[in-house]
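#onboarding

Welcome to the new folks! Below is a worked example of what a typical request in this channel looks like: someone posts a single protein sequence, and someone else replies with the predicted structure as tokens. Don't worry about understanding the tokens yet, we'll cover that in week two.

Example request:
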Amino acid sequence: MNRKTNLINLIGLAFALLIAMQTNAAAQILLNEIEIDPPSPTSDACQYTEVRGTAGSTVAANTYFVSVNSDAGSFGFANQAVNIGGQAVGANGTITLYNTSFGECPNRVYGTGTTRLNYFNPLRVGTGSETYLIVRSTGTLFSGQDLDTNDDGIFDPALGITVLDGFALLVNPEEEYVYGAAAGVVNISNTISLDQPDAVVRFGSNSTPFTAGAFFFGELAATPDETVTFAAPFSANFPTGAVLTPGNANAGAPVNANTDARADFDGDGRTDLSIFRSSNATWFINQSTAGQRTVQFGASSDIIVPGDFDGDARTDFGVFRPSIGTWFILQSSNNQMRGVQFGQSGDIPVVVDFDGDNRTDIAVFRPSNGVWFVRRSSDNIVAGVPFGAGGDVPVPGDYDGDNRDDLAVFRSGTWFINRSTSGATAVQFGVSSDEPVPNAYLP
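Example response:
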């Protein structure tokens, strides 16, 4: 009786958390779209920043868009600091920030449903490595201000800055800072070349802050200055036919949002028939568009962990060797093998994307103590998270639809789920002798 009461209380708490989350989301302000580098080197007039919120709502006081310099020698300097507090979000759910110091972008028409906020700043965005943020501050922020006076990669505490959303574009991630990293901001930098993308766009279906997979990016066509057409190179998750939508609501969903990264070896968005024959460590793939393949990779005692580890929307061959706690991955993007020591004998490797960057994270569930160990692909940070108990069956998955996998376990007919958007809940579904369906994909 007590167990049933506790379960009812837990579910009630989860619903309360969900309602609170939805209430907070209504007032949430997110980065939506930024044109960083217009195609003409002399046409900075076409740069703009677009933020997203609830149509008709008023942005809380002391809310700013800031672009923060991440280059050595200028760490923490605000290239832009635009106060959007008190602004009414437009009828289409956007506010468009426009720097008037470079004149008007030729022939561009911004959406009629947006709130356009003009400001004057002789500095431009996209001067090198930068972090782009929505923040709230207890004090006044301004362009040219040093927000990190001791150059430690953290905003000075006296400024009272709370980071609400954002992303970083770094040329040299090993030597430059992601400002707001403690809040969850990640580097989504272009790994194809040192040139930073011309424009970054949030998927219209994603309203989760700090999610690398929420954004896609690319270069812009060479002409005209007011172009909305993208050109290669693109981010790995770039949706076919995407364009800039200045002052309008964004459309689209990640190109592989509904793709099972564990079984799409040709990257066409459809699951391929595939088997692993342990007797000779051979993979047999019947690709839905590219014909049959046979690849020998791994050893007979390995646990298979195929996933999209390199973010090219194609499944990579992967195995976990429990005897030495090592992952071996054959990347489809360059046909190179890499080995990563992560885990130990007895761990259960799981194929997941916890940080929402559309790349498989290296992760294990340790059934002896119910702890998950995760190495996020977005920043290689390792975290140990206790969720579950010894003997639980791991059943991770995207239970809340935010393009990030959630920690979850199945225990004697009850599902315990730690949703990335709204926290923990428990759902009784099944009996102790049942096998949870997600577990069919696990070793």
